[in-house]
Specification:
With about 200 residues, this protein is mainly alpha-helical. The chain is built from ten helices and no strands. α4 (about 75-80) crosses α5 (about 90-100) and α6 (about 110-115) runs parallel beside α7. The protein is globular and about 40 Å long. The structure holds fe (ii) ion (2 copies). One fe (ii) ion binds next to α2.
């Protein structure tokens, strides 16, 4: 009998999603691991409320654990993996996705979620959207605690409202610091606005 590919996660995805184990090439210190676990906790709670099937929960937990797996690698190391034109602080997402792809992970939706967890992407599936939300809203960050608490309280049900708020806050921050805005970020914003219209 042929088993559908989605039912058999890649060993790296299974290890991260089921056992909370990061690949041996992961570069993240204690503080980063604590952040990763808070993101995983939020996603697990939302997956439960959304009544997601077990295989989907494993993917969500894996994405949470893997999204910052290379966050503490040096920019030089990261640039060898992928996206040489990205600013140093954002490189860890695409670099980790490239590494996972090289290891044989073929789940494009998960790879996109990991690669674009900071900047967003218009083709995010549900996993990409909720990882983007969880990364920004996890309770350990000191930025705008009241606003973020209010947004956590409306999730996972008010997905679009939360996405518009988080994408808006992130965009506003980029404008405030006069930073460049990636085309994927603009395209995600436009998709959300269109959906809300
Ligand atoms: Fe990150
Ligand atoms: Fe993160």
């Amino acid at each position: 009998m042929t088993v559908p590919r989605a039912a058999v996660p890649h060993p790296l995805v299974a290890a991260a999603g089921r056992d909370g184990r990061l690949p041996e090439w992961a570069r993240c210190g204690e503080a980063r691991r604590a952040h990763i676990e808070r993101v995983a906790g939020l996603l697990a709670a939302w997956a439960e409320r959304l009544d997601l099937p077990e295989a989907e929960r494993v993917r969500w937990a894996a994405a949470a654990r893997l999204h910052d797996a290379l966050r503490d690698a040096s920019p030089a190391e990261l640039r060898q993996e992928a996206a040489p034109d990205w600013p140093a602080a954002l490189l860890h997402g695409p670099a980790c996705a490239a590494r996972l792809r090289a290891e044989g992970v073929e789940d494009e939706d998960l790879l996109r979620a990991v690669a674009y967890h900071t900047v967003g992407h218009p083709e995010f599936g549900r996993l990409g959207e909720y990882l983007y939300l969880a990364d920004f809203l996890e309770p350990g960050r000191s930025y705008l605690p009241d606003v973020r608490e209010r947004l956590r309280a409306i999730l996972p049900t008010e997905r679009l409202e939360a996405l518009l708020s988080v994408a808006g806050l992130r965009l506003a921050h980029r404008l405030e610091v006069r930073g460049a805005i990636r085309p994927e970020t603009v395209a995600l914003w436009n998709r959300l606005v269109e959906e809300a219209a």
